[in-house]
Write a sequence for this structure.
């Protein structure tokens, strides 16, 4: 990655708090289930009812690789990973150059913890179609989780160069910029992600943290409040809101927001530590 100018930094106290917050948002960029990442099916189609309908389609067309790919995606969304793998295997048996099925199977391998197989499938998908943005984004997420930041950045960059409309490419590139203190670039990427997915809370959290890093507290607070409005069950959003209250000296409201974050995720360290700090004060 080319060296880029850094923005203003936080105070020593703020740096430690921001680092913990950024860690939480980075995790939010990779969900613990395939929702939002499988490439060929809508969320609602992961229901048992729709899987039954897709099974009926396969029974009528047992040699159709598209049908297996779609049902595999539905199984993945429903958390039925082994069933998903079997369907993607079948789709690829029927159509060996099915690059979408390779990318979908890679995601299932990733969630099952088989990172080597996931990487091999993403590589094969890209080999078959070097212009397939979803494979670059998936592989970039794999690299980012493995700490291979430069390779992750390159993959997100490539997806963006391909004119992707997938907000994850911008969101995750923004996280990388943010982790390196390049907050102007991060804010721009998070803003693009928001324009592509205005109902997603995570880019608001990410952008808000970079606003804090540039001492733009008002915009940070607005972003954290919007994240809560969009999804009130994300601990990071409440902890981020609490951070603003704490910076403003309003420990009572800060403690209340930290408490909500800790209730949602008792293991979320910034919330637990923030609650202890503000209650003690």
């Amino acid at each position: 990655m080319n060296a880029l100018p850094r923005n203003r930094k936080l105070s020593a106290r703020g740096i430690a708090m921001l680092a913990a917050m950024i860690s939480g948002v980075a995790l939010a960029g990779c969900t613990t289930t395939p929702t939002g990442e499988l490439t060929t099916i809508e969320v609602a189609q992961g229901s048992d009812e729709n899987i039954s309908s897709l099974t009926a389609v396969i029974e009528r067309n047992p040699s159709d690789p598209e049908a297996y790919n779609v049902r595999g995606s539905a199984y993945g969304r429903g958390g039925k990973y082994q069933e998903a793998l079997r369907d993607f295997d079948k789709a690829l048996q029927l159509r060996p150059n099915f690059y979408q099925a390779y990318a979908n199977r890679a995601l299932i391998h990733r969630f099952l913890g088989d990172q080597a197989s996931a990487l091999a499938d993403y590589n094969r998908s890209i080999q078959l179609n070097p212009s397939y943005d979803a494979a670059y984004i998936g592989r970039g997420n794999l690299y980012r989780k493995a700490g291979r930041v430069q390779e992750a950045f390159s993959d997100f960059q490539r997806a963006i160069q391909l004119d992707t409309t997938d907000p994850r490419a911008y969101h995750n590139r923004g996280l990388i910029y943010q982790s390196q203190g390049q907050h102007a670039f991060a804010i721009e990427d998070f803003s693009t992600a928001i324009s592509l997915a205005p109902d997603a809370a995570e880019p608001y959290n990410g952008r808000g943290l970079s606003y804090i890093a540039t001492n733009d507290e008002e915009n940070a607070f607005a972003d954290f409040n919007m994240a809560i409005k969009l999804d009130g069950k994300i601990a990071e959003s409440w902890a981020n809101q609490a951070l603003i209250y704490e910076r403003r000296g309003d420990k009572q409201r800060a403690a209340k927001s930290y408490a909500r974050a800790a209730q949602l995720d008792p293991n979320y360290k910034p919330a637990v530590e923030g609650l202890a700090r503000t209650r003690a004060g």
